[in-house]
Amino acid sequence: MKNWFEQHLYQGLKGIIHTYYKRVDKGHHRTEKRQFWCVPISQLQTLHNQDNWLGLKCVVMVVRVRHLCNKTTREVQFYLTSLNCDARNLGQVIRLHWGVENGLHSTLDVTFSENACGVRTGHPPQTLALLRRIALNALNLEQSLKRSNR
Questions:
Q1: What are phi and psi of 39, to 5 degrees?
Q2: Contact residues for 74 (Cβ-Cβ < 8 A; gap 6+)
Q3: What is the structure's pLDDT at 133?
């Protein structure tokens, strides 16, 4: 996918059906520019084991460029989806997903050291995950005292 996008973006995606969306966010002393290109699966070469991806409609490429003080980072990610090929909508869906990922999972790891837990087999990992979420919800409901969850 990387090679395909590089080649076709260089040519301006001429003759290729696609949608594009760009978003720039500023805050916390940084600027983040996100670009989303969405290409229907019908416009691409056949993917490896494509028949295993039931309902696959499109591929999305996201380029994130972050400027923080004197440091600039660039990150490229690809997504396969069964959602309609709408770069703006998919950009919002991807952003919401990472909001949950960053908000919930990092909170669970910081508060309960979830990633360091050595329980990995059988039912205990699921049980502990459920108990952590219940505890986190209980902590978040407590409003009478200002404190960190940790």
A1: -125, 125
A2: 63, 64, 65, 66
A3: 86
Question: What is the pLDDT, as a whole number, of residue 37?
Answer: 94
Domain that holds residue 36: 2-85
Q: What is the C-alpha to C-alpha distance for residues 8 and 26, in angstroms, rounded to an integer?
A: 30
Is residue 102 domain-resident?
no
| Measured distance CA(15)–CA(43) in Å, rounded | 9
**CA–CA separation, 20 and 100 (whole Å):** 24
pLDDT tens-digit series, residues 8-20: 888 888 889 999 9
Count of positions (residues) in the chain: 150
8 in Cβ contact with 16 (< 8 Å): yes
Domain tally, the chain:
1
Predicted TM-score (pTM) of the model is: 0.68
For residue 15, is it within any domain? yes
Cα angle, residue 45 at apex, residues 16 and 20 outer, rounded to 5°: 35
